[in-house]
Design a protein that fits this description.
Layout (H helix, E strand, L loop, with lengths): L1 E2 L7 E3 L6 E4 L3 E4 L2 E8 L7 E4 L9 E10 L6 E3 L5 E5 L8 E12 L8 E7 L4 E9 L6 E11 L4 E2 L5 E7 L2 H12 L6 E5 L7 E7 L3 E8 L5 E10 L2 E7 L12 E11 L5 E10 L2
């Protein structure tokens, strides 16, 4: 008798023996892909199995088979400016075989019942934002509670991540108004502005900002003593609408404690040195 434990997948070659006890992990995660034990090839469907060879000179190979399924992308957020379309952002899935994302929406009208999930769009890897022109941000729950889910597609076996919805207050609008919103967003903004959502937040918040001209942009986070904590944006950006997510960590990557923080948004336009600056409060609540 030879006893061993395997953290499969993998193969084990039996020695000259008549019986063999082996155990595989029931599930484990690598690179945000969850592998769940299925069965030993040609043998037991239990992760712990007693296998055998027919003679002392026979060698058999048993392989642990696993089903793979992706976890959802991290840092999914939905928000934007009041009276503007909802913008959904997320972080690229770390596994290169996640090649697409599905965007789903559920609408619950104020005082009504939650509707069925609706597939909005399928986008390719490399895309980390989506604008839903058919839902307009409201300040409070005056119209709809709209929930969004970004599902990762694992091309190796065609599986999708489980639903993981985030919600925002919004107002569903007719298709024509949604198209008008889409067309208007193609134009360049007429003023510089920034907001963030959610706030209070845990563990991350997304800054939504707009630029009139191409500019050098800085979004910095400070503690209440005015000490620089994190750099969210520090780069040249084109005119238009942008988003950047802060994950509540300092420049060294350490998770910050709950409390009040400050942000400063500064823009130095490349056109005639135009300058804009504003600031706001952030509340990290755990």
């Amino acid at each position: 008798m030879w006893d061993t434990t395997r953290s499969a997948p993998g193969t084990v070659r039996m020695p000259q023996s008549t019986s063999f006890n082996i155990s595989a992990n029931t599930s484990y995660e690598i690179n945000r892909i969850v592998y769940t034990f299925s069965q030993w090839s040609g043998a037991s469907t239990s992760s712990s199995a007693s296998l055998s060879s027919q003679s002392a000179t026979e060698h058999k190979t048993y392989t642990a088979n696993f089903n793979a399924k992706p976890l959802w992308p991290e840092n999914v957020a939905a928000g934007g400016y009041v009276d503007d379309p909802v913008q959904i952002t997320w972080t690229e899935h770390p596994h290169p075989s996640v090649t697409q994302y599905q965007l789903w929406r559920i609408v619950k009208p104020l005082g009504g019942s939650q509707g069925e999930p609706q597939l909005l769009e399928t986008v390719n890897r490399g895309t980390t934002s989506f604008t839903d022109y058919s839902c307009i941000i409201t300040e409070t729950y005056t119209h709809d509670l709209v929930s969004y889910d970004v599902r990762a597609y694992f091309s190796v076996n065609g599986s999708y991540s489980d639903p993981n919805y985030v919600s925002v207050f919004a107002n569903s609008v007719p298709p024509r108004q949604a198209e008008d919103q889409r067309i208007s967003r193609i134009s360049v903004p007429k003023e510089y502005a920034i907001s963030n959502y959610p706030n209070p937040f845990n563990p991350s918040t997304t800054f939504f900002y707009q630029l009139v001209h191409q500019a050098n942009v800085n979004v910095m986070v400070y503690d209440v003593m005015g000490r620089e904590i994190a750099v969210v944006v520090n780069e040249r950006k084109s005119p238009g609408y942008h988003a950047a997510t802060w994950h509540g960590k300092d420049k060294a990557g350490h998770t910050l404690p709950s409390g009040v923080y400050l942000y400063r948004f500064t823009v130095t336009s490349l056109l005639e040195g135009e300058f804009f600056s504003t600031s706001g409060k952030l509340l990290l609540a755990k």
